Amino acid sequence: MLLFIICDYANPEGAKAALNLSGTMLGLYPLRVLPSKTAIAPVNPTFLPRSDDEREMCSRTVYCTNIDKKVSQAELRLFFESICGEVYRLRLLGDNHHSTRIAFVEFVRAESATAALHCSGVVLGSLPIRLSPSKTPVRPRSSRPPIH
Fold this sequence. Notes:
Layout: H1 12-19, E1 25-26, E2 29-30, H2 52-59, E3 61-68, H3 73-83, E4 87-93, E5 100-107, H4 110-117, E6 123-124, E7 127-128, E8 130-133
Antiparallel strand pairs: 1-2, 3-5, 3-8, 4-5, 6-7
């Protein structure tokens, strides 16, 4: 089982102390402590899970960043399905103002999401993708009435 924990320390000394724990045995396994490459941004509370069903969706979802703009949604889906398992829903986001894109990938099974986390650092297109567990469910796009 793979477990990720993200910690935000009040001061640099706490973070340095945590980094010094890398290699410490916890049960049968050594801890692997790494500095984050990105800041921990607060999540808009309206995006957080609202029900047990949405919390279960999060367990099957990964957040993927640093996606090369040349990689299509179909290529991204094929990548994850060929390595991790069946993708239930994939939302690829990005615009012309950013050099890379992000995606939320919801799998049919939670085990597939866990397997996907091992793909962090794999080069897709010309960039290494970064993966983390999703804090938010991938909600179906709402069907809004047209604005007149």
